[in-house]
Structure formats: C-alpha cells, structure tokens
C-alpha cells in the first residue's frame, strides 16, 4: 500500500472508506438530521468549544473565505499575520474582498512574534480583526497560539484562525484561547477525504457577522446556522464525506483527544530524529516545529524532484515538495491524521536508499 505522507489529503482508514460506500439518503430527511446533529456534537468536542460549529461543503480555502466575508465589511482594518504560503493566502482573501489589510509577515521557517503583533495593534487602534495561522503547512511551523491569542484579546480584536492543518492533531482549545472563527478541513487531521470545511463561530464573531457587509451567498453563516438548527445545510452537502466524518470522529474520540495529540508529538519527533540520522537538517525553527508536517532542507547536491520520483516509484512513499519560493529547496513529510511511528520508519528507510540515488551521499 502507498505510504501517503503529504500534509493532506491524508490516508483514510478502512472503516471510514466503508462509510463512504453507503447509499445516499435524503439530506432533508430524519436520518440526515440525526447524522448532522451527531457530527456537530462530536466536532465541538474536538474543537474544545461550546460555540457553534458549522460544516460547509468546500475545500479549506472556502472556510477561510467564509471567515472573512461573514465577519468583515469592505474598508475594515485587518492585521494579517503570515509566516508562509497559507498565511499569505488568508491575507489575499481579505484584500480581495476589500478589507484594509496591514500585512505582518515573518521570515519563512520562523513563527509569528506575539510582541510584534502587540506593537502593530498599539500602532493602529482602528484594526478590527487579526488573522493568524495556527500551523503553517508550507514551512512546518506552529505558531505559539497560547501567547498570540491573549495578545489579540488584550486589544479586544476579532481573532480569525486558519487551523486547517492543525486542528484535531495539535492542541487548540478554541474557547480557552478565545478563537472567534476557527477553520479546519476534512482532508487534514480528520482522516477523511477532501470536501468539508468545519468552522467554529464565537459570540463575538456572531456580533461582527450581524454588521458585516462583505458580499456572500454560498458561504453565509446565518443561513448555515438556521439550517443546522433543523439538522440540515442550506445547500446539498457532500453527504458521503459527512458519513465518513462521523466514523472518523468516533475513532478520534475513542482514542481520546489527549492521546491523539500525544501520538502526533511522538510521530513528529520520530520524523525529525530520522531526518537528522540521515545527515539532513530541518527547515523550521526548532522551537516551533510542527507536529503535523516536517520540512527538510534539500542540500545543494540533492535533486528534490528526482528524490520524490524515486520514492514514489520504487518505494511507494509519497512526500511533498516545497511550495512557491521553497520549490526545490525543501521536501516535506506529512504526518497528520491516520499515522503512526511505523509509517515514519518506512519513510526514513526509503530515504536511506533513495537519497544517494538523487545525489545526496550523506552528511
Ligand atoms: C491545506 C491548507 C489550506 C488549504 O486547504 P484547501 O483544502 O486546499 O483549500 C489552508 N491553510 C492551511 C494551513 C493548510 O494546511
């Protein structure tokens, strides 16, 4: 079987795959209502929230767009922190819909600095919302949300969080840290195929929503909430992916959230130790390394494209390359969702054979 080790889509367990083979049901009928209510209750447990959690049929980016258009008006000031490709994307969405965006970017491979955020908020009291990436998948850095969230709330700003590749794998207590809108995606830590984005909405976010004037139709939180009260969604949902999510949530809750987080910590450490044992070095600041994706610096002699091809064709190991400016400079091992130490051991032993073939003979 292929060892799919990219940061999404992630492998799907057999029980979850089987759930997707079920016959269609009426999405306006009683069975779907029960399913949707169950899924929503379980999602709240994993989000660690009592707030609303809305399930929208879309890629994660749709959830990010929903977070912006449902809480802001054109001209609203937004502080957009970014530590990589996905932070830049969140920034771009806010700009596209006419927010007055102040970008606050940090060097790729580093985390966002809570003090810099504080200074930016002090400098412009008119800022309404702050965009933060919990886990930046392009650089393998997890922001220190325990430090950043209180700074945003010290200034009473709306906190919009891209937690797409972290939630369900890395502890993010949504209510405790006052995340107003928290976005995740089914194909990351949830062990489910792509198709759903799940979004929590706080009281504060609902207040902002009541005044938000950005144009929206498909992604309308009010519509999603009023339908959810009937156990439905405004538009036809990806029913099979909801079946899958329901089963995957049972697996997550059976393992226990704390155990899921601990497993990701162990697996990530195995990945980092394995990489170092091969004489390679890590791309991300070691203080903020991600527990869901490990980017590896490609030494000069190493042909990343050739490496990924050898791994894929001769070892059935699929890793990810670098994105944008990092293309050819790093490769990435995804380890979120359905993953254990054995999967990582398989990656490391395949690398041991493939690295010399792709030009890297050792440290
Ligand atoms: C994967 C990812 C996204 C984008 O998700 P899509 O489902 O591809 O739209 C956004 N942010 C982060 C941090 C991600 O890892």
Please describe what this structure looks like.
The structure is a single chain. This protein has 363 residues and is α/β, with parallel strands linked by helices. The protein has 2 domains: 3-7 and 256-357, Aspartate Aminotransferase, domain 1; 14-254, Aspartate Aminotransferase, domain 2. Helices cover 42% and strands 16% of the residues. A 7-stranded mixed β-sheet has the order 2-10-9-8-5-3-4, sandwiched between helices. The chain has a 3-stranded antiparallel β-sheet with strand order 11-14-13, with helices on one face. Helix 5 (114-123) runs parallel beside helix 6. The protein is globular. The two termini are 30 Å apart. The mean pLDDT is 98. Bound molecules: pyridoxal-5'-phosphate. The site of pyridoxal-5'-phosphate has 13 residues, from helix 3.
CATH-derived architecture of the largest domain: 3-Layer(aba) Sandwich
CATH class of the largest domain: Alpha Beta
N-to-C series of helices and strands: EHHEHEHEHEEEHEEEHHHHEHEEEH
The residue ranges in which pLDDT falls below 50 over 5 or more consecutive positions are: none
* Percentage of residues assigned to helices: 40-55%
Proportion of beta-strand residues: 15-25%
Mean pLDDT: 98
Number of strands: 14
Biggest sheet, open or closed, and with what strands and sense? 7 strands, mixed
Rg, alpha carbons: 20 Å
């Amino acid at each position: 079987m292929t060892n799919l080790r990219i940061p999404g889509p992630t492998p799907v367990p057999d029980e979850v795959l089987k759930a997707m083979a079920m016959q269609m049901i009426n999405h306006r009928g009683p069975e779907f209502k029960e399913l949707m209510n169950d899924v929503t209750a379980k999602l709240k447990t994993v989000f660690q929230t009592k707030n609303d959690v809305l399930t929208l049929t879309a890629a994660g980016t749709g959830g990010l767009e929903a977070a912006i258009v449902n809480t802001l008006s054109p001209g609203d000031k937004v502080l957009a922190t970014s530590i990589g490709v996905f932070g830049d994307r969140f920034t771009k969405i806010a700009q596209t819909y006419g927010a007055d965006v102040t970008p606050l970017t940090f060097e790729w491979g580093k985390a966002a600095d809570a003090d810099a955020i504080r200074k930016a908020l002090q400098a412009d009291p008119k800022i309404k919302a702050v965009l933060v990436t919990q886990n930046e998948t392009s650089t393998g850095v997890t922001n220190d949300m325990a430090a950043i969230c209180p700074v945003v709330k010290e200034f009473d700003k709306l906190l919009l969080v891209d937690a797409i590749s972290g939630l369900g794998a890395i502890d993010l207590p949504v209510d405790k840290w006052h995340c107003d809108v928290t976005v995740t995606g089914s194909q990351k830590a949830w062990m489910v195929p792509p198709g759903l984005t799940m979004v929590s909405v706080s009281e504060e976010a609902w207040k902002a929503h009541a005044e938000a004037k950005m144009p929206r139709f498909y992604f309308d939180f009010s519509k999603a909430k009023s339908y959810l009260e009937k156990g439905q969604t405004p538009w036809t949902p990806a029913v099979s992916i909801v079946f899958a999510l329901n089963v995957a949530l049972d697996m997550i809750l059976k393992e226990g959230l704390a155990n899921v987080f601990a497993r990701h910590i162990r697996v990530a450490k195995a990945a980092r130790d394995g990489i170092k044992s091969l004489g390679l070095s890590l791309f991300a600041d070691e203080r903020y390394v991600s527990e869901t994706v490990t980017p590896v610096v490609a030494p000069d002699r190493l042909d990343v494209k050739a490496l990924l091809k050898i791994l894929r064709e001769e070892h059935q190991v699929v890793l990810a390359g670098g994105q944008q400016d990092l293309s050819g400079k790093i490769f990435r091992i995804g380890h979120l969702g359905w993953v254990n130490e054995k999967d990582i051991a398989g990656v490391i032993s395949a690398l041991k054979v493939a690295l010399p073939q792709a030009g890297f003979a050792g440290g």
